[in-house]
Write a structure and sequence with these properties.
single chain, 410 residues, mainly alpha, Amino acid/polyamine transporter I, 17 helices, NRAMP_fam, Divalent metal cation transporter, manganese ion transmembrane transporter activity, transmembrane, transmembrane helix
Length: 410
């Protein structure tokens, strides 16, 4: 099982360009599909029920915050040629270790939910027992890291799954015939605004390990340096836009169901929407989308979480693919034996929201340290907008965490 980086970095002009195009798409879709997990489907459905057409405004604001966060993070990682934890350690010794611990714990906890989602997806798609489905899904994820060129396999898998999800979601959105005109109007003139919904969407889209998924992937493929900035920027925006297209398509599908006055099952909101939209076929489509969303999140969470400890010891670097596999196995075993620890997941979710301001704030400081970025000059507009995201998400993340802490003691 070859190292991801050594299996992909190649010399020669034309070959390198071709590889880079594939890697750029792969990084974009790795980030996008990592953020489109089981929670993504449920959150979007629930918030659309609550806010109706005004949820379009929430999507618009969250997309802006997502793009600012990702462009900052990807550029600084790419220019420095260092992973997030290495940059943090250079800004403040020991900070990288703290960041790595938070991300690995959060990634492991959420991967339990991702494995559960994959099991539920195969249950809806094929009628399999959820635990059996989870084990099969874990096997698929592990196989990706067992093939000779694991990085390329991961890139292709993320792209294929992402495109399938987007196409199926658009089909269901068209099927429900949503009031598109009203959705467009309320996107810019909402009747109701939910800051909690914005924080939840931003945290779920670029929080925790997801913030670094694409940037770390590009580093492993050798895409770094000031000369690579145009490609890095395009890849980061492409990832957010892919997430945005998926979010908008799901929003319109749910809005179409809600506008018809149909009742959505509170026990499984997204599955209910698909079933109401297209009957039994719709339910099977939900299974495909849920499985694709969950399995790609399993891959993304494991890969990125482990990338945060690779630099801590030569043995971890040497055997990181096997550690990724162990990460997936542990998540699957915990789900099979214990199930989803709901309270823990909620608390980790709140902590996840705090990782974004900590990580982004650290990288913004790093952008002005020559021993990290050399002669690179970070755009002022990115610094200012990035600082706004840090302050906003930091404040709202703390408020959310305080609100959720009592759940641990219930």
């Amino acid at each position: 099982m070859d190292d991801i980086q050594s299996s992909e970095v190649s010399g020669g002009g034309p070959v390198k360009k071709k590889v880079n195009r594939s890697v750029l798409l792969g990084a974009a879709f790795l980030m996008a599909t990592s953020s489109i997990g089981p929670g993504f489907l449920t959150q979007t459905t629930v918030f659309t029920q609550q806010l109706a057409a005004s949820f379009g405004f929430v999507i618009l604001i969250s997309l802006f915050l997502d793009i600012v966060a990702q462009m900052n993070v990807w550029r600084i990682i790419g220019v420095s040629g260092l992973r997030g934890q290495e940059i943090a350690n250079k800004v403040l010794p020991g900070l990288g270790v703290v960041l790595a611990i938070l991300i690995v714990i959060g990634g492991l906890a959420f991967n339990i939910g991702n494995v559960a989602g994959a099991g539920l997806g195969l249950n809806a798609m094929l009628g399999l027992d959820p635990i059996v489905g989870a084990v099969i899904s874990a096997g698929v994820a592990i196989f990706i890291f067992l093939v000779k060129e694991a990085g390329k396999a991961m890139d292709k898998f993320a792209q294929f799954a992402g495109i399938v999800m987007i196409l199926l979601m658009m089909f269901v959105a068209i099927k429900t015939a949503p009031p598109v005109g009203e959705a467009i109007v309320r996107t810019f003139a909402p009747t109701e605004i939910s800051w909690f919904a914005i924080v939840t969407l931003v945290g779920g889209t670029v929080g925790g390990y997801i913030t670094f998924a694409g940037g770390h992937r590009l580093l492993d493929a050798g895409v770094k340096g000031i000369e690579s900035l145009p490609e890095i920027t395009k890849s980061s925006v492409a990832g957010i836009l892919a997430t945005g297209v998926m979010r908008v398509a799901l929003f319109l599908a749910v809005l179409g169901v809600v506008s018809q006055g149909l009742s959505i099952d509170p026990d499984n909101p997204p599955a209910s929407v698909f079933q109401l939209a297209a009957g039994e076929i719709g339910y099977r489509i939900f299974g495909v989308i849920m499985w694709a969303a969950a399995i790609t999140s399993v891959v993304g969470a494991a890969y990125t979480s482990v990338s945060f400890i690779r630099t801590f010891h030569p043995s971890i670097e040497k055997y990181h693919n096997w550690i990724i596999i162990a990460f997936i196995l542990i998540s699957t075993i915990v789900f099979a034996l214990v199930g989803r620890p709901v309270n823990i997941l909620v608390i980790v979710g709140a902590l996840n929201a705090l990782i974004l301001p900590l990580a982004l704030g650290t990288l913004l400081i790093a952008a002005y340290k020559k021993n990290i970025v050399g002669a690179y000059k970070h755009p002022l507009w990115l610094t200012i907008t990035g600082a706004i995201v840090v302050v906003l998400m930091g404040y709202l993340g703390v408020v959310t965490l305080i609100e959720q802490l009592p759940l641990l003691f219930k």
